[in-house]
C-alpha cells in the first residue's frame, strides 16, 4: 500500500516507536509515579522524559508547562474553555478545523464573541486584518499553524509579535506542523500550543498535549485524582497536575517520546526537506495535468506536506475510492473535518481529495500516484 | 517482582494484549474510519469490535451507547458535567475517589447541590439513607461500585431499583470492579457507567469510557472533529460521535479488546473466584497477625481484590518503601486519591498501605507478602 494519509495519522512509525510502546507495556506497565514502587517510578520516568522531549522540540523553557491530553482536540478545548470567559472576544480564521470552530460555536452561545476573519487559502491570515480586528475585550487569537486542507501556513511570527504588543494571547494548533516545521514558542510569542502525537511527531494515537505559558492558569476541563497532593477537595494549582486528572496513556507517551527522539536524531531540517521535495514533486506533477483543480499555496511556497485537489466534477469520494481499490493508494476525501476551509475555497460541501505525505514516503510512490490520478482523470481507471 | 498494585494499573497483561497493540500500530495504524481507505476501515473495525465487546461484558443493548474516553476520570467528568445543571441535587457517598469528589466540589461552586452520605466502610452505602436523602430536585446518584480503599461494594442493585422508582438517574464508577465482578447495566438499573481499561479489563492505560443509557443526551466535555457529519457548526447529536471528538486511541482500544476477549474466554466467574481466594488468603493471614489494623468488609464478605492495612503507628509510606526495596513487592501507600474514604476510616491524612491483587497473582506471592509484612511488623526488616 502507498500511504498518503499522514495528515490524518502518520504511518508507518519508526521501529523504535513500536518497540517503546511494547517495552513500556511489558516491562514498565505500572501506574506512572502514583505508587512509589520502582515500576511505578520507571513509568513516571517515561512520562517525564517525553515531557522533556516535547519541551526541547518546541523550545519550551520548563517541561512542567507541557500538559498531556489524549489528542490535539482535547488540548484545543482545554485552551479555549480554560482561558475564555463570557464577554471575552476571540479572533480566528476561516480555515480552521472543527476542533477549533466547534468549541468556539458552543462558547458563542455562552457569551464569548467570535470574529472569524476571511482568510486567503494560499497566503493564510493577513496580520493587518488581525490588527484591525483587535478590540478592547480581545483576549485570544486562535489559529492553526498550517491548514489541514490547503497546507497554507499562517504567518504566526508576525501575528505573535502583534498579539504580544497588544496584550492579546496567541494560541496555535500545531496538529499539521509539529515534527515537520520548526516551532519555537518563545521566538514565535506563542502562549498556548496544542499538538497531537500521532501525526508529524510519529507517536501513537491517544497522545497529544497543550503547552501553557508560565503565569497562565486555566480552568481545567476535568477534575480528579492527580497522584500527589490528594488532600484538597479542589484541583491543585500546579502544572501539569492541574490539567492531567486520571491515569495518563503511559505506553502511548513512551511511543511519542521515541517518535520525538527519532525527529531530533534525523533533524527537523532533514525531515522538512524530504517532505518538501516529495510534496513539490506531487504538486508539480498535478499542475501539469489537465482538468485538475488545485488549492493552496503555489509551487515553491511553504505548505504543510499535503495537497488537496479535485478532478473535474468527479466526486472526491469516488476518486479516493478508485485510488484505494484500483491503485492501493490511501487518500482522504471530503471535508477533512474543516467545513469552513472548504466554504472559503468554494469546495463545500463535496470537499476535495487530499494526499498527505510523510518522511517515509518516496519519489516512486509519488510517481505511482501521479500515474494513477492521470489515469482516473482520463477515465482510464 | 511481586506486583500487588493492580487497583492502580493491572500488570502483567495477557500476551494477546501486547500483541494486539503492536499489530494495530504496525498493520492497522491509520485513522479509524475517517478516511475510507482500507487501512482506515480496518482501524475503524478495531474500535467497533472493542465497543461491541464492552457492550457484551456489561449487557449494554446497543454498542453505540459506549463512549470511549482516555480514562475513567474523563468518563466520570463527562457524566457528571453532562447531566447536571445548576439547581440540580446529587447524592454520593463518603467513600468516593477524587475523580468524583473533585468534579462535584467544582460543580458545587456553580450551584449544584451535593449530599455526601456518611458511609459504612465495611457495608457500603445504606439504601435507606439514599431513599431519605432524595429530594424533588435530585437528578443523580453517583457511586463507585467498589471503594478503591476498602474494597467494599455499594449495594448497587438495591440503589438502582430505588433510583429507577424515584425517577433519579444512577451513575456508577466501575473502576475497581469491571472485569472482576459481574456488571449488568440493565438488571442493575444503571443509567451511566464509567469504566477504565487499564485495571480489571486488562487493557492498556489511555483507555476507558462511559456507557450512556439510550434516551439520555449529555452536554459534551469537548467539541471537535467527529469523522463523519463534518458540516454542522455544532456537535452532532448521535452517540458515540457526540462525545468522541478527535482521534481515538486505536492501539489502546485494540489492546482493551484483547483484554476483554481474555476475560470472556476465561470467564468472569473463574477470574472472580481466583481473585477472591487470593484476597481471602491475604486478609486471613493479616488478621492473624498482631499489631495490624485492617479496614473494609470482614473475611468472607464481598470485596474488590484489595486490602488496606496499617502496621501499628508505622507510616504507610515507610512500610511500602520496605516492601519495595527489601522484598521487591509493589504496594501503594497513602490516600489513594480518595481522602474522603480515609476521613471516613479515620486514617486521614497518613492513609494506609494497599495491596491489590489480580488474576495473575499466586498463592506463593501472597505468602511471601505475608512473611514480609510479618517481618516489618516485628521490626525484622
UniProtKB/TrEMBL annotation, chains A, B:
Catalytic activity: (sulfur carrier)-H + L-cysteine = (sulfur carrier)-SH + L-alanine
Cited Pfam families: Aminotran_5
Entry-linked SUPFAM superfamilies: PLP-dependent transferases (SSF53383)
Superkingdom assignment: Bacteria
Entry keywords, A to Z: Aminotransferase, Pyridoxal phosphate, Transferase
EC number from the UniProt entry: 2.8.1.7
Keyword Electron transport: no
PROSITE patterns with a match to the protein in the record: AA_TRANSFER_CLASS_5
A GO MF term: transaminase activity
InterPro entries (alphabetical): Aminotrans_V_dom (IPR000192), Aminotrans_V_PyrdxlP_BS (IPR020578), Cys_dSase-rel_unknwn_funct (IPR010969), Cys_dSase_SufS (IPR010970), Cysteine_dSase (IPR016454), PyrdxlP-dep_Trfase (IPR015424), PyrdxlP-dep_Trfase_major (IPR015421), PyrdxlP-dep_Trfase_small (IPR015422)
Cofactor: pyridoxal 5'-phosphate
Residues covered by the Aminotransferase class V domain: 2-367
Region (Disordered) location: 222-243
Family designation: Belongs to the class-V pyridoxal-phosphate-dependent aminotransferase family. Csd subfamily.
NCBIfam families in the cross-refs: am_tr_V_EF2568
Protein name (Swiss-Prot/TrEMBL): cysteine desulfurase
Protein species of origin: Dehalobacterium formicoaceticum
Amino acid at each position: 500500500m502507498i500511504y498518503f494519509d499522514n495528515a490524518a495519522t502518520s504511518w508507518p512509525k519508526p521501529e523504535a516507536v513500536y518497540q517503546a510502546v511494547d517495552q513500556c507495556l511489558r516491562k514498565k506497565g505500572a501506574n506512572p509515579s502514583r505508587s512509589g514502587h520502582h515500576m511505578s517510578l520507571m513509568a513516571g520516568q517515561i512520562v517525564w522524559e517525553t515531557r522533556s522531549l516535547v519541551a526541547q522540540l518546541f523550545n519550551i523553557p520548563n517541561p512542567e508547562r507541557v500538559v498531556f491530553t489524549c489528542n490535539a482536540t482535547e488540548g484545543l478545548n482545554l485552551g479555549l474553555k480554560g482561558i475564555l470567559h463570557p464577554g471575552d472576544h476571540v479572533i480566528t480564521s476561516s480555515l480552521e478545523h472543527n476542533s477549533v470552530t466547534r468549541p468556539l460555536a458552543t462558547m458563542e452561545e455562552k457569551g464569548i464573541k467570535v470574529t472569524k476573519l476571511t482568510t486567503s487559502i494560499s497566503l493564510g491570515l493577513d496580520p493587518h486584518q488581525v490588527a484591525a480586528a483587535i478590540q478592547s475585550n480581545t483576549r485570544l487569537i486562535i489559529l492553526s499553524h498550517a491548514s489541514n486542507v490547503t497546507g497554507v501556513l499562517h504567518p504566526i511570527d508576525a501575528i505573535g509579535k502583534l498579539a504580544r504588543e497588544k496584550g492579546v494571547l496567541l494560541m496555535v494548533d500545531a496538529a499539521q506542523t509539529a515534527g515537520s516545521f520548526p516551532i519555537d514558542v518563545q521566538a514565535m510569542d506563542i502562549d498556548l500550543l496544542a499538538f497531537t502525537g500521532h501525526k508529524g511527531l510519529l507517536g501513537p494515537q491517544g497522545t497529544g498535549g497543550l503547552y501553557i505559558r508560565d503565569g497562565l492558569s486555566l480552568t481545567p476541563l476535568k477534575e480528579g485524582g492527580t497522584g500527589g497532593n490528594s488532600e484538597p477537595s479542589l484541583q491543585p494549582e500546579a502544572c501539569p497536575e492541574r490539567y492531567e486528572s486520571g491515569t495518563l496513556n503511559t505506553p502511548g507517551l513512551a511511543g511519542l517520546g521515541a517518535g520525538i527522539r527519532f525527529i531530533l536524531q534525523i533533524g527537523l531540517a532533514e525531515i522538512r526537506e524530504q517532505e518538501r521535495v516529495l510534496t513539490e514533486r506531487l504538486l508539480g506533477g498535478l499542475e501539469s495535468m489537465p482538468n485538475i483543480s488545485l488549492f493552496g499555496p503555489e509551487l515553491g511556497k511553504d505548505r504543510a506536506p499535503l495537497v488537496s485537489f479535485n478532478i473535474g466534477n468527479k466526486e472526491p469520494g469516488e476518486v479516493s475510492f478508485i485510488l484505494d481499490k484500483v491503485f492501493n493508494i490511501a487518500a482522504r476525501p471530503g471535508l477533512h473535518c474543516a467545513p469552513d476551509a472548504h466554504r472559503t475555497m468554494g469546495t463545500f460541501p463535496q470537499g476535495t481529495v487530499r494526499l498527505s505525505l510523510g518522511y517515509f514516503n518516496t519519489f516512486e510512490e509519488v510517481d505511482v500516484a501521479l500515474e494513477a490520478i492521470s489515469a482516473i482523470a482520463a477515465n482510464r481507471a
